[in-house]
């Protein structure tokens, strides 16, 4: 089995990506980050998902992004609530974390080089969240090109790193249907940016809004409890 | 004054780079990393250098690279001693840390985006240490291209990030002469991978060998104490 590094946040997209990498026959090295994000619950979800998927290893790395700031996810900026899907899709949201995906992918590249993996799986998609610059195909291609110049394995020609983004052109409903067909238990995942004190998803942040719309359009029941 | 992020390890190259960025009139945001490196003394050097250079801010971020491993600097691999300059220049050394410069530059990019900087200064040079893939000009160009696709500021066209590597084609003696002419106190810097228990530079690791050769060729006295 060929090893693959899979970025795993514990949400719907990365969990479905993990299941797709498994279906392709990869031995799975799941990589998560504690980066000062508000929704630390997603790390617990990542651990549940990794265990359920039978990964070879799950590495959770700490990052100091909170000290860099600049995002509603890592600094004291209010997370927007109750926005429409149209409003969410317009412009770059305040939940954008500067260079976050570049930092995540750079660590994935380091780990891939050490364990001998070529494929790095990343659950980016452009349709629902077109506002994130570091989810676009031209960005992913530029990262892949840089990655093969950056590394010993790339330079020596012994390996060619690839960024695999199988969800890139799926909408949320298609992603959920794909995960469902692969046997993903979405009850293990987490999406909400600001869960309530009693552990429910808020139902109103951008992440909840897109998730619920996706389940509704997929005609599937979202197993998570919602406060609103 | 235009803000610039400067990667600062506390060695000769990054210290000279910091002095060059200062001479160009930038307001300086120095960025260092505690990444599980053996030679933690370089962080103390970075703090001394940043203070002496009058930086606007010095941020030291923690990274979990030790848990990824794969390098003599972060894992339990012996640092080579007593190698000739020719041997050091041949091939990629065991002190190469997988994707390290990509991880460093990704954090610099994040900080640059938050503070409104365009220039990221990086003391890479290809001549003495041709073995590091992530010091080559083609790598730096690929990173710069990726960086402008990755970020909100790059996408909106409000800024263009540049990777400034002013030492790229200098040898160590030229770097030392440049730093000297800018008033750098090299007694504040640190280079050795494995200092002795009594706080001297070992004199035998690749980093010491290249540093001492550089000072000798520059015709300048190296103020550091050496054990051998």
Structure overview:
Chain A has 228 residues and is of the alpha/beta class. In chain A, 40% of the residues lie in helices and 11% in strands. In chain A, helix 2 links the parallel strand 2 and strand 3. The termini of chain A are far apart. The A-B interface holds A 59, 61-65, 67-70, 92, 96-103, 106-107, 109-111, 113-114, 133-134, 136, 138-139, 142-143, 145-147, 149-152, 154-156 and B 59, 61-65, 67-70, 92, 96-103, 106-107, 109-111, 113-114, 133-134, 136, 138-139, 142-143, 145-147, 149-152, 154-156.
| Assembly type | homodimer
- SSE order of chain A in H/E notation? EHEHEHHHEHHEHH
- Output the number of helix runs of chain A: 9
- Choose one word for the global shape of chain A: globular
Largest interface: A-B, 43 and 43 residues
| Percentage of residues in DSSP E strands of chain A | 5-15%
**Average pLDDT over all residues of chain A:** 90
Measure the end-to-end span of chain A.
Answer: 44 Å
**Model regions low in confidence, pLDDT < 50 over at least 5 residues of chain A:** none
The largest beta-sheet of chain A arranges its strands as 3-2-1-4-5
Radius of gyration of chain A, whole Å: 17 Å
Proportion in helices of chain A: 40-55%
Describe this protein with a few key phrases.
homodimer, 228 residues, alpha/beta, five-stranded parallel β-sheet, 5 strands, 40% helix, globular
């Amino acid at each position: 089995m060929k090893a693959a590094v899979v970025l795993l946040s514990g949400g719907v997209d990365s969990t479905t990506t993990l299941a797709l990498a498994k279906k392709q026959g990869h031995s799975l090295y799941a990589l998560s980050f504690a980066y000062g994000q508000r929704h630390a619950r997603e790390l617990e979800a990542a651990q549940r998902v990794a265990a359920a998927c039978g990964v070879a290893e799950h590495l959770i790395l700490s990052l100091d992004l909170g000290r860099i700031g600049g995002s509603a996810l890592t600094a004291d900026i209010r997370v927007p609530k109750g926005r429409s899907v149209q409003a969410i899709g317009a412009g770059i949201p305040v939940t954008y974390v500067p260079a976050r995906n570049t930092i995540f992918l750079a660590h994935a590249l380091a780990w891939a080089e050490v364990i001998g993996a070529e494929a790095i799986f990343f659950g980016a998609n452009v349709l629902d969240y077109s506002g994130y610059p570091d989810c676009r195909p031209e960005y992913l291609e530029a990262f892949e090109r840089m990655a093969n110049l950056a590394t010993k394995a790339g330079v020596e020609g012994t390996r060619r790193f690839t960024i695999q983004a199988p969800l890139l052109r799926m909408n949320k409903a298609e992603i959920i249907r794909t995960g469902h067909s692969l046997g993903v238990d979405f009850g293990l995942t987490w999406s909400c940016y600001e869960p309530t004190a009693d552990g429910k998803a808020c139902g109103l942040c951008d992440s909840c809004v897109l998730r619920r719309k996706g389940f509704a359009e997929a005609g599937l029941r979202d197993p998570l409890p919602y406060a609103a």
